[in-house]
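#lab-general

N.A. 3:47 PM
ok so I finally got the sequence cleaned up, no stray characters, all 84 residues accounted for. can someone with queue access submit it? mine expired

B.Y. 3:52 PM
send it over

N.A. 3:53 PM
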Amino acid sequence: MTESEDAGAIRRILVALDASPESLAAEVMPHVSLAAIHDVLSYYYDHKEEVDREVGENSVEASQKYLRERLGEEGYNRITGQSK
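B.Y. 4:20 PM
back already:
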């Protein structure tokens, strides 16, 4: 993972869990130090636009849209097992 991906992932976890950095370090990611979590959050806030853009570009929805545009609806349904 790049720093930007780490920052986006940590930020999404904090928001989704309504967690503090302290509880994230203690309960969710005990293998990651509190200092490392603060470093990642610092990176996130210093590069917020870039991180948010990359997170959006790498979302499931963005991937599905990309495949639909390239394969068409029928091809997309076939590769995802949704063909009838």
